[in-house]
Amino acid sequence: MYSYENRIRAVKLYIKLGKRTRPTIRRLGYPTKNALKSWYREYEQSRDLQLGYVRSRQKYSDQQKRAAVQHYLDHDRCVAATMKALGYSGRQTLTAWINELHPSLRNHVVSRAATTQHSPEIKNQSLICAPGTQVHK
Q1: Whether 11 contacts 43, CB under 8 Å
Q2: Three-state SS letters, the chain
Q3: What letters, b where the CB count within 10 A reaches 16 and e where it falls short, cover 44-77?
Q4: Model confidence, pTM
Q5: Residue range 14-69, pLDDT digits in tens
Q6: CA dist., res. 63 & res. 123, Å (int)
């Protein structure tokens, strides 16, 4: 996300350079071509830009969220199968919906392997050697 000042600077430079996207982006190092054109269209209509980003509407309705979570629950709690069957939302979005609507359903596995320190003796005892190899002490 770019600040208001960065966006207005980009639009003014775009106009100054004859509405050429490539030189504008090359000089500033940002934004993308489509973002620059979108900012220019907004500037052209109102002679200013919005101070912040406002999503005009939700991407998915509450009914679509509930349907996706219900499909997940009815079909073996498989995120991949739900995404494939319904054809919308991503893994992170669907997981967030599940956590939002049914927070107790998701198991969060936390590994202790990274924090457990074993002595060299235990490490040597647990070492499995291929046939014909020796363990040196």
Answers
A1: yes
A2: CCCHHHHHHHHHHHHHCCCCHHHHHHHHCCCCHHHHHHHHHHHHHHCCCCCCCCCCCCCCCHHHHHHHHHHHHHCCCCHHHHHHHHCCCCHHHHHHHHHHHCCCCCCCCCCCCCCCCCCHHHHHHHCCCCCCCCCCC
A3: eeeeebeeeeeeeeeeeeeeebeebbebbeeeee
A4: 0.41
A5: 999 999 999 999 999 989 999 999 899 888 888 888 776 655 667 788 898 898 88
A6: 53
